[in-house]
Amino acid sequence: MKNEVKDKSNRSSFGLKLMEFRCPFAILYFHFLVLWGLLTGVQGICRDGCPIFSPPGAPSKHTAFIATSFGNSLLRENSEHENVFFPQSKGFSAPTTTSPHSWRLPTLRMASVDEVDDNSKKKDNSKLEVVVLGLSHHNANVNLREKMAVPEEEWNTVSSELCKLDSISEAAVLSTCNRFELYVAGKSKYECIRDALNYLHNRVNSKGNDISLSDLKSGIFMLDGEDAIWHLMRVTAGLDSLVVGEGQILSQVKRAYERGIDVANGGCAGKVISRLFNSAITGGKRARSETGISRGAVSVSSAAAEFTSLVLEQRDIGDLASAGIVLLGAGKMARLLLIHLKSLGVQEVTVINRTPERAQELCTEFPEMTINIKGMDTIWETIRDADVVFPSTKSNVTLIDPEPLQNALKGRVKQTPLIFMDISVPRNVHPDCESDNVKCYNVDHLKAVVEKNTAKRKYEMKLAENILKEEMEKYLLWSISLDAVPTIAKLQEKAELLRAEEVQKAVKKLSNASPAEIEAVDRLSKGIVAKLLHGPMNHLRQQKESIAARTAISQLQQAFNL
Asked: Which domains does the chain have, with CATH numbers?
């Protein structure tokens, strides 16, 4: 019996001596137990759910488990380890049933995590917010739209000027005959809207206009966040077009995207705006290929041809097939017009263009039609003898003005009024040209044809919107992943800082430890930290829905005070 007591006493004495002389293996064993207890507790937390992925303040059996595993005395008596184990977040503390004390992780100084922005000139940790400002046939008349219109060759000039503003990091421009839209991204949507509005106001008035800021605001629409994303999705699919399902808008959005990513020539669509346009283009393609939204759809050109045919019938002028038709311009719109005029029985037209080579290309493309080519020097005499004129040029100024037009019409033989169907934006025909013998129409007059087209496509629109929702969800998941990357990086930095501090404390106690033993402690701590972080980080990466991903990121940030 005495020998047993003596033996126990010797073992106890040996243990005390080991601690007294700070034996490296004893200290290593002690720290291993501490870290193993933490690993075991947190693994259970990640497995069963805990404050990391639960609302702050929610009770957790694992919190009590960790406190019990380490022992209250360790936290009370060892000042070096006090307040280490529990993240500081609002409402989060250890249960009072375990200890009267509450534990929290001290606030640590964190290194900044740069969010990479490929094409943007500004770099910031903050997530960029997407905003769209614009005018369309829904909320602004053609008079205002033509003043705001930007030629395609100037899209990058405008976006570059916008990106020089402190609030705007990325920008892209989309300007067509029916809409003018700016897509911008910045840290604050409010600052983006304010600065973009001021820019537009200054730009439009620098051209000799006199539009007040309040008048501009009343005619412009502003959307941000998911509303802005959804708007571009619908625009690209043709669901927001004057003629639902028309295909021209998809190619126009593609050109806006291509110009935006052309950094060498001033493109300022960084990773956020370019990804948004890419997703919208994918949605637009799918909507057209997987639904009937584009089958039998008409373009602005075809709507203009159909509308003009109705006007001629209502005014008892005759039918379009027998009318004297003049096309002013030989570009893409003129080509589309010829396609639809041909389908309505038109056999002969006259094309007026500055360069005869472009007009000659139309003759080659439509050999079954008689196309008379004339230069701009014959414009007034050609118009004088016409029944219908379709202006469709990219001119920024009016080509048909009241005074020269009335002078030309003095020699007009026909008694019927001259019809102008102006599908250009800005308009080629001055609004004051309207008179008893001249009737002027523009794209805003195509409502009757458009309503008829929209009614036929309501079912297909719903199918197309379902596809767009899928593409929007993919974009949102990608966008949220931009938040996950810096969150994971900050969590790793915070864990590494805490690990390094604890290893430093342990090394001070291992005065007799060899470099190999110290390295073993360091490797052990790194391995445990990596395993601890695997659960939370893997949870973030596995989210397949935008709402769940956003919630997981928010909870992780709150739990670890990131």
From this structure: 15-107+484-559 (no CATH), 129-297 (3.30.460.30), 300-447 (3.40.50.720)
